[in-house]
Amino acid sequence: MAMIHQVFRRESRLLVELVQDVRPADTARSRILAEHWRLYSTGLHAHHTGEDEMLWPVLLPHLDLDAEQVLAMEAQHRELTEGIAEVQGLMDRWQAQALPEDRDELVEALRSHRRQLCAHLDEEEREVILWSRST
């Protein structure tokens, strides 16, 4: 799990940097990055869905953690899904014409997504992965 978390951290950082550097009207580049975002967000959604459907139900009966912790992580997954939807809308708008004002708004949304994601992954690793290693 820690390895895939590192991938999501790296890719979320790279998306910010790469989108930020796209020249106005470079729709060839914006389409490539929109596809990269689609693959990234699909993978992140699959990862979180897998945790919610397969990992938490198995771990929850065995955790010394308060069940509220796991429920909070599930809630964070829902919040991340909402942020992903926001980024997707901005990405769709930006990729069509690669306007600088759309790019700038998208970059801010990607930064916000990254902050939220990294805080979630840090908490998950601190509270659940470390717990599972100690049992």
What does this 3D model show about the protein?
The chain is mainly α. The chain contains four helices and no strands. It has helices spanning 2-20, 27-59, 67-97, 100-134. Helix 1 (2-20) packs antiparallel against helix 2 and helix 3 runs antiparallel to helix 4 (100-134). It is elongated. The two termini are 17 Å apart. The mean pLDDT is 89.
Attribute tags:
135 residues
Short description:
The protein has four helices and no strands. By secondary structure, the protein is an all-alpha fold.
Provide mean pLDDT, rounded.
Answer: 89
Low-confidence stretches: none
Biggest β-sheet strands, sense, barrel: none
| Secondary structure: helix percent | over 70%
Q: Spell out the helices and strands N to C.
A: HHHH
Shape: elongated
| Overall number of strands | 0
Distance between the termini: 17 Å
Q: How many helices does DSSP assign?
A: 4
The share of residues in extended strands comes to under 5%
Radius of gyration: 17 Å
Supply the helix-strand structural class.
Answer: mainly alpha
Write the layout of secondary structure elements.
Elements: H1 2-20, H2 27-59, H3 67-97, H4 100-134
Helix pairs in contact: 1-2, 1-4, 2-3, 3-4
